[in-house]
């Protein structure tokens, strides 16, 4: 008999964290599960730690080279046999009752996907500093069905909002298989957002439970800042790809929401193209880009106070977490590789 839930854990060089993630999955009050780890070419002891567990419900798959988080998740999805798919990042963990609570509520609401709130916790901290819903400013006190357009409108790069693309829903595997839904392997940022969007476009019933059962670890934002131009470009390409679909063209509200997101990505891409060139000392090339992007100075001025405040916090007050999620949640996207 197939398990009730397949927990898929993509992993890359997280030897210091993955044991906690695995333990939290295996210690769920819902015991009818399988846990599938896909190590994505780690160079540390991640695989050794994973294989040290003897629970028969645990399966470890090893990629011989690093293929990316989406490819790792897709390999786990293809191996999964559970009625439900639950994603767990290898540096995060679950509350013990998470899967039991979500599966029960999913069956009660006839959901195709259902997410809980997230505890936000700094790396090394012993308790959460906030939750995703609290940071959004939304007042949600009951189970809420999420519609396609509001999902896009409340998850805009660099802006405050509910940001459900950061959430970790559980998915009905039958729905994913029926619609051929997998992660987009061409993107390495916001991969959860694009998968959720595919599900919603295909008519998924998506519910949000306003209680946190998932612990989302905030690690330094420098992990994702290194290739910000590539990542923003990926988001532009992915958004434009969705816009070209007939189902989007036939939905004016969705078209407006995605077009707005695309414009925001393009604006930020143009801004950071100049910033990166300036940091590299390529002043003439930077000037050329500024001429192409006359709104650069407006963008810079609008960001100036925040830039100065961050540097005061980091260099003068010694606040080393100034660049992580707790200080700048609205631009944080986790990556495992």
Characterize this entry briefly:
With about 325 residues, the protein is α/β, with parallel strands linked by helices. The protein is about 45% helix and about 15% strand.
For the largest beta-sheet, the strand count, sense and barrel status come to:
10 strands, mixed
Query: How many distinct helices?
Result: 14
Strand content: 15-25%
Instruction: Give me the count of strands.
Output: 10
pLDDT under 50 segments (min length 5)? 221-226, 325-333
Q: In angstroms, what separates the terminal alpha carbons?
A: 34 Å
Share of residues in helices:
40-55%
Radius of gyration: 20 Å
Structural class label: alpha/beta
Shape: globular
Helix and strand run: EHEHEHEEHEEHEHEHHEHHHHHH
User: Average pLDDT value?
Assistant: 88
């Amino acid at each position: 008999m197939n398990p009730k839930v397949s927990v898929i854990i993509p992993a890359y060089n997280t030897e210091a964290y993955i044991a906690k993630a695995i333990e939290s999955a295996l210690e769920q009050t819902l015991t009818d599960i399988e846990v599938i780890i896909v190590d994505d070419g780690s160079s540390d002891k991640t695989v050794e730690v994973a294989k040290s567990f003897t629970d028969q419900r645990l399966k470890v798959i090893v990629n011989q080279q690093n293929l990316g988080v989406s490819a790792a998740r897709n390999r786990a999805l293809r191996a999964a046999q559970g009625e439900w798919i639950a994603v767990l990042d290898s540096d995060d963990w679950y509350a013990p009752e998470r899967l039991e609570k979500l599966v029960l509520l999913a069956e009660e609401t006839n959901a195709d996907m259902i997410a809980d709130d997230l505890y936000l916790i700094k790396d090394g901290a012993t308790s959460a500093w906030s939750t995703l819903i609290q940071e959004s400013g939304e007042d949600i006190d009951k189970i809420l069905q999420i519609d396609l357009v509001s999902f896009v409108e409340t998850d805009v790069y660099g802006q405050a909002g509910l940001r459900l693309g950061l959430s970790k829903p559980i998915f009905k595997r039958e729905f994913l298989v029926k619609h051929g839904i997998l992660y987009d392997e061409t993107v390495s940022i916001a991969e959860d957002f694009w998968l959720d969007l595919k599900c919603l476009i295909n008519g998924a019933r998506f519910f949000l439970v306003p209680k946190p059962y998932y612990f989302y670890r905030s690690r330094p934002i420098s992990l994702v800042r290194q290739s910000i131009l590539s990542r923003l470009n990926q988001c532009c390409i992915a958004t434009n790809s969705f816009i070209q679909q007939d189902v989007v063209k036939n939905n004016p509200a969705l078209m407006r929401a995605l077009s707005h997101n695309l414009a925001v990505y393009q604006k930020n891409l143009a801004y950071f193209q100049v910033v990166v060139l300036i940091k590299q000392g390529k002043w003439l090339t930077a000037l050329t880009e500024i001429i192409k992007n006359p709104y650069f100075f407006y963008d810079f001025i609008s960001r100036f106070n925040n830039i100065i405040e961050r540097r005061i916090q980091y260099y003068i007050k010694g606040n080393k977490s100034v660049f992580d999620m707790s200080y700048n949640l609205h631009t944080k996207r986790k990556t495992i590789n």
